[in-house]
Amino acid sequence: MMRKQIAAANWKMNLTLQQGEQLINDLLAKPHSLKENQQAIFAVPAPYLMMAQEKLGNKERVAVAAQNCYSKKSGAYTGEISVEMLQSIGVHYVVLGHSERREYFNESNPFLAEKIDICLANGVTPIFCCGEPLQIREAGKQNEFVGTQLNESLFHLSAADITKVVIAYEPIWAIGTGKTASSDQAQEMHAFIRAELAHQYGKETADQISILYGGSVKASNAVELFAQPDVDGGLVGGASLIADEFVAIINALK
Questions:
Q1: Whole-number Å distance between alpha carbons of 85 and 73
Q2: Which of 46, 59, 108, 170 could crosslink 131 through cysteines, CB 3.0-4.6 Å?
């Protein structure tokens, strides 16, 4: 079975509704082909989920994602979004544990484990982000650091459930900095993540899980990054806000 290859756009906190609509219209107008094992996912700000779902919801191999959700089903959590709400508008993907959420909103590995559980219990696919900051990379401790993130947030899952998770490796030192991990550095970490999954769940299970690279992915480096054997696509920030760039990234999937 060929693993799913994914180009995921993370708009972060950008664009007005009108600009977002325009971007989607521009993207749809451009020639792009998604093969059977490929998918484009759009993680848009919460107020635009309905709009994006309306425009993209019936397109084949295209999905809309939320950028976050809360760890509880419902209740007195003003300003939060539940997976039940996402389900009710037909959104079946959510980005969890992005380094910005970890850094600015103090999201911990155990807290993310709770979010993972509630997503899987409600048929929502988590795109789980992991990755190390610069000082960890410089100390050569990146494997240990990412291994702990996987262990504390994902490895309580059954083999059946872990295959429902998409993993995104994002070296924090390469996000929005213009620095990209070299395709060799990306492959090295992706191979490490897959080896950890294989150690925990067996090779067959590990080989089914899509591992995306995030960190200054653009049209100019996507082909080389995606050509790596363990890189199954990208989680794209800035370049996903430019229609031409993102279409080129979609077309770079293997």
A1: 9
A2: 170
